[in-house]
Write a structure and sequence with these properties.
Beta-Lactamase, 8-stranded mixed β-sheet
């Protein structure tokens, strides 16, 4: 049974969009406004309507089928289909124009570095350099906006990890696919059906008991950045993670802000010193219509407290000649 069979009975008017492999995302902005992403471009869908009442019933049934709930007391749904596709919804009154439903399809194809080079996402010489950094056990932060290809890049870089290493992978939602034989996969759990939450921070704290050679954290969103920073400072080099940011420099700033969200009682400059010593390489990706590409690769050389700035050098800048 594929993932979409779980939700198709409730979404017949847009079934053809959900099953179309060339469409990567279906976005419903109320019952009569439907958009899709196809080949990297956003398109409006004409002549399709779900009906306001039918759409509300569909979203509630989908939530139940996925073991979740959406209601006036819990108006936001963020769930995952069995194949890894994401289903997100918000209902009125929080969604002003009617029920908002977004289905982001999971791409089952496992991209390799040659696919990214062919697609123009990065150059072969840069790919070779990133592979050397992985083999040299540098700590990577992959930054970019929503849909810029952060997870795909993490998947590709993860394939450079030697096959004899033990890798511990921690995610909110299972999306990363690595070929290591000695791979431990851990997934966080939202509170549901009376069961307490298991957070990324819980899993990071537990990870040291399982002798990882490398730790891969799917995405940094909050205080778990501090726990990851502690692991990096205790010798667990060669880690990879992603963060939402608009540039490589902003990725470092975002990481620092997430450390502060942990509530740790450390001076701001001490935190920045630790970040500067622990994060070695920042890869930033951009998304433009029809294209996703590496825009910057920055190597971090520590933190300068006198200037209150990270020391860094550009390894690659898509808007300039490579250094």
């Amino acid at each position: 049974m594929n993932g979409f069979e779980t939700i198709l009975p409730f979404l017949k008017p847009i079934e053809h969009l959900i099953l179309d492999d060339s469409i990567s995302e279906v976005m419903v902005n109320g019952p009569d406004r439907i958009f899709i992403e196809k080949a990297g471009f956003i398109e409006v869908v004409r002549g399709v309507s779900l009906g306001e009442k039918s759409l509300m019933v569909a979203v509630k049934n989908i939530a139940r089928r996925l073991g979740d709930d959406i209601s006036e007391s819990k108006p936001i749904l963020d769930s995952r289909l069995p194949d890894g596709s994401r289903v997100a919804a918000v209902i009125p009154p929080c969604s002003v124009n009617g029920v908002t439903l977004t289905i982001r399809k999971f791409n089952a194809r496992h991209f390799g570095v040659e696919d990214l080079v062919q697609a123009g996402t990065l150059e072969q010489s840069l790919a070779n350099q990133l592979e050397n950094y992985i083999l040299d056990r540098r700590n990577f932060l992959i930054a970019g906006g929503t849909g810029s290809g952060k997870t795909t890049m993490l998947n590709v870089l993860g394939k450079f990890i030697p096959p004899d290493e033990r890798v511990l992978l921690i995610e909110d939602t299972s999306e990363i696919h690595l070929a290591q034989d000695n791979l431990v996969r851990l997934e966080a759990r939202q509170p549901q059906n009376g069961l307490p939450a298991v957070t990324i921070r819980d899993l990071l704290k537990a990870s040291l008991r399982h002798r990882p050679d490398r730790i891969i954290l799917g995405e940094i969103r909050g205080g778990e950045a501090f726990d990851l920073l502690q692991l990096l400072n205790t010798g667990h080099s060669g880690s990879l993670s992603t963060v939402h940011a608009t540039s490589a420099r902003q990725g470092l700033a975002r990481f620092t802000s997430c450390v502060l969200q942990s509530g740790v009682d450390l001076p701001y400059r001490a935190i920045k010193t630790n970040v500067g010593d622990s994060v070695n390489v920042v890869v930033h990706l951009e998304r433009r219509p029809g294209r996703r590409f590496v825009s910057e690769v920055v190597e971090i050389h520590g933190y300068d407290p006198d200037r209150d700035e990270y020391n860094y050098s550009f390894i690659f800048d898509s808007y300039k000649e490579p250094l």
